[in-house]
Amino acid sequence: MILRVARHTNQLDKIVEFYTDVLKLKVLGSFEDHDKYDGTFIGKENADWHIEFTQSDVSPKHKADDDDILVLYPSSTEEFESLLNNIKAKNIDILPPNNPYWEKNGVLIKDPDGFNVIISPTRLASISLEDS
Fold this sequence. Notes:
By secondary structure, the chain is an alpha/beta fold. It has helices spanning 12-22, 77-89, 100-105, and strands at residues 3-8, 26-34, 37-43, 49-55, 69-72, 107-110, 116-119.
């Protein structure tokens, strides 16, 4: 099974920059003016998942709440620390999560559309977020 998470935005360029520059994901493909939609596929090469962001002249009507979260699990301690350092270097606010689990097991930031993204090292050998 392959997973695609699709979301509409009215600021495709900012979203692509955030997910590639801040979170170090790759642009896997894109399209322009396909039935009046532009879009970009973002993810990791050779993975069974990706995120599709689309933009059109129809404005999105997002209704996400504090517990709607995209969680990314870096594949190594080095990748987690690199992402955390990149987030800090770009002065992106690290926010307190609503769910106490994520307070201990991840770092919460918001993407340009205001959606929560957590970078979680919980699948890695014990990494202390307090030491990062």
